[in-house]
């Protein structure tokens, strides 16, 4: 079975499920300012209410020491500067980004299983990132880099068109209340932006454990003309694509997903490919 990155599980215990309280903050009192409007091709993406709220948390001393050693080499804050991934990694390799890598349990596992790829994890929550940074140092994982900040800003300003082999979005916050749906990451304009950044044939892999968000994601993906379904949930046959897709369709199972599955959570996987002209 496919698996889950604990990207949205920033505390030690919660399994898959609605996370607006533990990951992003109090969903009943969102920050309505949302920051500056995003831009794509000179047009407003959508009113920039972000899909997250950065919150503070303690980083243990040993982990902070690892952060101080590693961050100058593997970490950057989001900026308007175009990213030269080959220079950052010190090699040329297909590039995958993961939006919301959280504490990076699955991120690290996938990087170790996929040494042929350069992987960039994007996350806003420093204590989660610090766990991943410490693991990268401890296990000497050399094909991971991390960006701290808003993934939409990364896609808009730092990533060149048709430069990504894959984009992974595992368990984004579902913002379950209807009045907060504007805060969901996977809006139509975001899918268009992601598709623009994928190479022809590149893969977008999304997973959610929230039934309503799954319906939302399915509808948004079906409306993006640059993408074609590659698995059952997207109207495709995975057997037609699995062997020729540039990245694998599998994910390592973490303890958080195992706990959620035992509790009866249903996981929906969406896999799209960018249409090759």
Give me the secondary-structure topology.
Elements: H1 20-24, E1 39-40, E2 43-44, H2 61-74, E3 75-77, H3 85-89, E4 95-99, H4 105-113, E5 118-123, H5 126-139, E6 144-148, H6 151-158, E7 164-170, H7 188-197, E8 198-208, H8 211-222, E9 227-229, H9 255-262, E10 268-274
Parallel strand pairs: 3-6, 4-5, 4-7, 5-6, 7-8
Antiparallel strand pairs: 1-2, 8-10, 9-10
Helix pairs in contact: 2-5
Notes on the protein architecture:
By secondary structure, the chain is an alpha/beta fold. It has one domain (34-274): Rossmann fold (3-Layer(aba) Sandwich), CATH 3.40.50. Helix content is 31%, strand content 18%. The chain contains nine helices and ten strands. An eight-stranded mixed sheet has the order 3-6-5-4-7-8-10-9, with helices on both faces. A two-stranded antiparallel ribbon has the order 1-2. Helix 5 links the parallel strand 5 and strand 6 (144-148). Helix 2 (61-74) crosses helix 5 (126-139). Mean pLDDT is 83; it is low at 1-47.
């Amino acid at each position: 079975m496919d698996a889950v990155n604990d990207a949205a599980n920033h505390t030690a215990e919660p399994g898959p499920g609605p996370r607006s309280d533990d990951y992003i903050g109090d969903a009943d009192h969102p920050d309505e300012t949302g920051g500056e409007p995003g831009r794509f091709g000179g047009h407003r993406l959508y009113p920039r209410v972000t899909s997250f709220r950065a919150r503070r948390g303690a980083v243990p001393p040993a982990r902070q020491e690892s952060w101080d050693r590693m961050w100058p080499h593997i970490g950057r804050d989001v900026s308007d500067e175009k990213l030269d991934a080959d220079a950052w990694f010190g090699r040329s390799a297909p590039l995958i980004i993961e939006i919301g890598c959280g504490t990076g349990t699955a991120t690290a596992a996938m990087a170790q299983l996929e040494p042929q790829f350069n992987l960039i994890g994007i996350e806003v929550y420093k204590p989660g990132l610090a766990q991943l940074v410490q693991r990268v140092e401890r296990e000497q994982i050399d094909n991971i880099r991390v960006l701290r900040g808003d993934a939409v800003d990364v896609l808009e300003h730092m990533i060149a068109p048709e430069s990504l082999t894959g984009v992974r979005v595992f368990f984004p916050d579902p913002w379950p209340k209807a009045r907060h749906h504007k805060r969901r990451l996977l809006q139509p304009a975001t899918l268009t932006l992601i598709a623009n950044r994928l190479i022809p044939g590149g893969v977008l892999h999304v997973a959610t454990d929230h039934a309503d968000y799954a319906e939302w994601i399915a509808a948004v993906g079906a409306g993006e003309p640059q993408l074609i379904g590659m698995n059952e949930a997207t109207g495709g046959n995975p057997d037609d694509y699995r062997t020729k897709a540039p990245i694998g369709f599998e994910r390592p199972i973490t303890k958080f997903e195992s706990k959620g599955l035992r509790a009866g959570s249903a996981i929906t996987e969406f896999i799209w490919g960018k249409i090759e002209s």
